[in-house]
Amino acid sequence: MTETKDTSQFVEDLTDQSDDFSRWYNEVVRKAQLADYAPVRGCMVIRPYGYALWENMQRLLDDRIKATGHQNAYFPLLIPESLLALEAEHVEGFAPQVAWVTHGGDEKLAERYCIRPTSEAIIGKMYSRWIESYRDLPVLINQWCNVMRWEKVTRLFLRTAEFLWQEGHTAHATAAEAQEETLRALEFYRDFVETELAIPVFIGPKSEAEKFPGADMTYSLEALMRDGKALQAATSHNLGQHFAKVFDITFQDEQGKRQHVYQTSWGATTRLIGALTMVHGDDQGLKLPPNVAPIQAVVVPIWRKEGEKSAVLEFVGRVRAALKGVVRLHVDDRDQYSPGWKYNEYEMRGVPVRLEVGPRDVANAAVMSVRRDNRAKESIPLDRLAERLPALLAELQKALFQAALEFRDQNLARASNLEEIEAHFAERRGFVAMPWKDDPKLEALIKERTGATLRCFPLPTESSKQLGGDGMRLAVFARSY
Fold first, then answer.
1. Contact 281/28 with Cβ under 8 angstroms?
2. What angle do CA 162, 47, 283 make, to 5 degrees?
3. Residue whose C-alpha is closest to residue 69's, from 171, 140, 174
4. Residue 397 belongs to a domain
5. Model pLDDT for residues 42-93, shown as the tens digit of each residue
6. How far apart are CA 435 and CA 421, in angstroms?
7. Which CATH number do you get for residue 440?
8. Burial of 31 by CB count in 10 Å (0-12 exposed, 13-18 middle, 19+ buried)?
9. 456 and 309 housed in the same domain
10. Judgement on whether residues 143 and 268 belong to the same structural domain of the protein
11. 4: CB partners within 8 A, 6+ apart
12. Does any domain span residue 243?
């Protein structure tokens, strides 16, 4: 492509992460065209590039949900106040965040409706109608939808008044089945976040103080961002019979007796886009894991003389044909931008691999690949491209996970008492692991003195081996989003 003078300001220097991580995050989300602020307080517009990323994530998670026997359904956005009020503990937990509908047109409603902050109430009501016998169980339903929580402090993807998510809601005949389901959801979340998003997580139960309102037990996935703060990536709740008793969800067992069901709920949100931005991004912008990247490879044609253009574009056409159906490919053959400008743009947007095609590459019947994560270059012959590029993307996916795991483990400390935790958070961030016996007073004191909360009691997984513990119960603390 002929060199031209750039006048556009699309590609600009980002704030360095080390200077102001929060500002870096907001800049990269907007400049990479993931999302923008909406004219509605606390809400965001997810732009096509960001939504394509969400669709890829949604598809991969939905496959795991359906593979474990769940079906998708849809429930109303509006919940009658009388229905929500049935569950006092649940309402108390969400009351400050509930948005209310008071009028239909010009007419004041006889009863207010809340815009769902979550759907336990409306789904519990429907399950009380649908479940009659043990033969109706288990009920395994998931829905993809939006919810609204009237947050006071918002940040794109991480905390907005309206956000997208999936929420699973299941009903079972026994406590053991409900617990098995709770852990099943926790595991497919772990597999999704670590395998597809390349984010290592600690998984495990939360403390009594941190659990979901109305749940018997809450399990979470905890990830570490590059600024040293933790972020809750997903949750899975064992609801026991709490909601079943509130909404009278009963079934006739095999002996003919009426029993309350045992329930679970679990969810993950568009917050995961913020997580992968903060886990993998650098001072040049996003680094998207290939498994979910909207564009896995971008082709940039290069020519200096007009006479080189036709040969380069003809070869680019052969590259496109070779990779059709193999990777998510984009060819940027716009004349108005120079190759250098395009390099910066696609680095900003986190495209995993750039494929450069110039006259020399055409002469060699090859393309020059450049990785986004480490900028390693490799000349790949055209006749091997369809084989080599997917392998290269797999290598990059693995490298992103390994880099994130090393960063997390380098920012994992140990403490044995309150004083050591205080000393750590006085100078550093990251995770702190501490042997733990249930002590709500100590947990509250740690939060008061350090601002760190008990994130979870980690369960053993491949990515948590660094914790060790020799069988002791450990609690992991961190400051968080």
1. yes
2. 100
3. 140
4. no
5. 999 999 999 999 999 999 999 999 999 999 999 999 999 999 888 777 667 7
6. 12
7. 3.30.110.30
8. middle
9. no
10. yes
11. 335, 336, 337, 338
12. yes
Closest CA to 40 of 130, 124, 150, 146: 150
Give the span between the Cα atoms of 398 and 445, in whole angstroms. 39
* 217 shares its domain with 95: yes
pLDDT value at residue 243:
94
Helix/strand/coil percent split, the chain, to 5:
40, 25, 35
Residues 6+ apart with CB under 8 A from 254: 134
pTM score, two decimals? 0.94
Q: What are phi and psi of 71, to 5 degrees?
A: -120, 150
Strand partners, 201: none
For 383, counting Cβ atoms within 10 Å of its Cβ (0-12 exposed, 13-18 middle, 19+ buried), the class is exposed
Q: 10 in a domain, yes or no?
A: no
Tell me how far apart the terminal alpha carbons of the chain are, to the nearest angstrom: 44
CB 72 within 8 A of CB 166: no
Residue 47, domain CATH:
3.30.930.10
Spell out, as residue ranges, where the chain has pLDDT lower than 50: 1-11
Q: Domain check: are 347 and 458 in the same one?
A: no
Cβ proximity of 196 and 276 under 8 Å? no
Do residues 173 and 259 touch, judged by C-beta distance below 8 A?
yes
Q: Which domain holds residue 432?
A: 412-478
Whole-angstrom distance, CA of residue 481 vs CA of residue 475: 18
CA dihedral 196, 199, 205, 206 (to 10 degrees): -130
CA nearest to 208, candidates 216, 220, 200: 216
Which of 367, 363, 203, 219 shows the shortest CA–CA distance to 300?
367
**pLDDT for residue 90:** 65
Distance of CA 394 to the CA centre of its chain: 20
3-class secondary structure, 107? strand
Task: Indicate the number of domains in the chain.
Answer: 3
User: CB burial class (10 A; 0-12, 13-18, 19+) of residue 191?
Assistant: middle
**CA atoms 309, 310, 312, 313: torsion sign:** positive
- The per-residue pLDDT for 3 is 36
Residue 400 lies in a domain: no
The closest alpha carbon to 70, from 126, 7, 142, belongs to 142
The answer to whether the CB of 219 falls within 8 A of the CB of 301 is no
Residues 214, 353 share a domain: no
